[in-house]
Structure formats: C-alpha cells, structure tokens
Amino acid sequence: MLENNCIFCKIANGEIPSATLYEDDMFRVILDLNPAAKGHALILPKKHAADLFELPDETAAKAIVLAKKIAGVLKTGLHADGINLVQNNGEAAGQTVFHYHMHLIPRYQGDKVNINWVPGTLTEEDKKEILALF
Ligand code: 5GP
Ligand code: ZN
Question: Are strands 20-23 and 27-31 parallel, antiparallel or unpaired?
Fold first, then answer.
C-alpha cells in the first residue's frame, strides 16, 4: 500500500499537506510545486505503484477518466488553449518521483513550455522489428 520514504505516498494519503484540487478513495490531484505552466497538476493514486507497469488496470482506467474531468475544469477555468497529459516511466524517460503520476499541463498560445522532440524517420528495419512484437 504505502511505500516507505515515498513522498507521493505521503502526499496522496494526506501525511504531507498539498494543494489538493480533488480527492476520492483512490486518487488525490494536487498542484505541482514547480509548475511548467499555470495550473500544472498531478494525479496521484493513493496506493503505491512505481510506474505504469505496476499500476493495476482498474486504477489506470479510472485515472484517464479523472484526467479528462480535471483537464476540463483547468481548461475552462484558466482559459487554457490546450492541455498536455504527460506521464513518465523510468529515469530514462524523465521520471524523478517513482510513484505513478500523470501530469496535466495547461497550455497557453505562445507559451514557452517545452515538451518537444526532434522528429526522426521511421526506418523499414525498425518498422519490421516493432510490428513483429504485436
Ligand atoms: P516526474 O519527473 O517524476 O514525471 O515528475 C515529478 C513531478 O513532481 C515534478 O514536476 C515535480 O515538480 C513534482 N514534485 C516533486 N516533489 C513534489 C512535492 O513534494 N510536491 C509537489 N506538489 N510536487 C512535487
Ligand atoms: Zn508511493
């Protein structure tokens, strides 16, 4: 349930106070302490899962429905022009807190938020290898 020394376990379960936008029996939604943009929020499950791979299917399904609801309130209330859902898994992917969380980042036309990558080219070799996985 709670993982020792996991900051998001403590926040999600109310042991450490946070700016909470929403709470139910499974989730807490908080404001990020170092927001990429105004309204940057995090959806935290109350039960510890390090990342997407450890997250139970039921929690994963509910998290996206909750994200839709919170994103709608942020977009309307803050007059955002868009919202990024970002979810990092593993250090190589930029994850720094190893308790599953989903970022909701409101976007404003012309903002300087950087969630971009340099587009590559899909090679025939990669395409074959990846298609063969499924
Ligand atoms: P990650 O890089 O793991 O996807 O994202 C971790 C996020 O958690 C970062 O955006 C960081 O600003 C936020 N964060 C880290 N520690 C705390 C904290 O104690 N409280 C809150 N509200 N956000 C935190
Ligand atoms: Zn945790």
Answer: antiparallel
Task: Work out which ligand 1 atom sits closest to the CA atom of 97.
Answer: 3
> How many Cα neighbours within 13 Å face the side chain of 119?
2
CB-based pocket (< 6 A), ligand 1: 7, 18, 30, 32-34, 88, 94-97
- Pick the ligand that lies closest to the CA of residue 6: 2
CA atoms of 127 and 27, how far apart (whole Å): 38
User: C-alpha 111: how far from its chain's center?
Assistant: 20
| Neighbour count for residue 54 (Cβ, 10 Å) | 14
Q: How far apart are the first and last CA of the chain?
A: 33
pTM: 0.97
Name the average pLDDT for the chain.
97
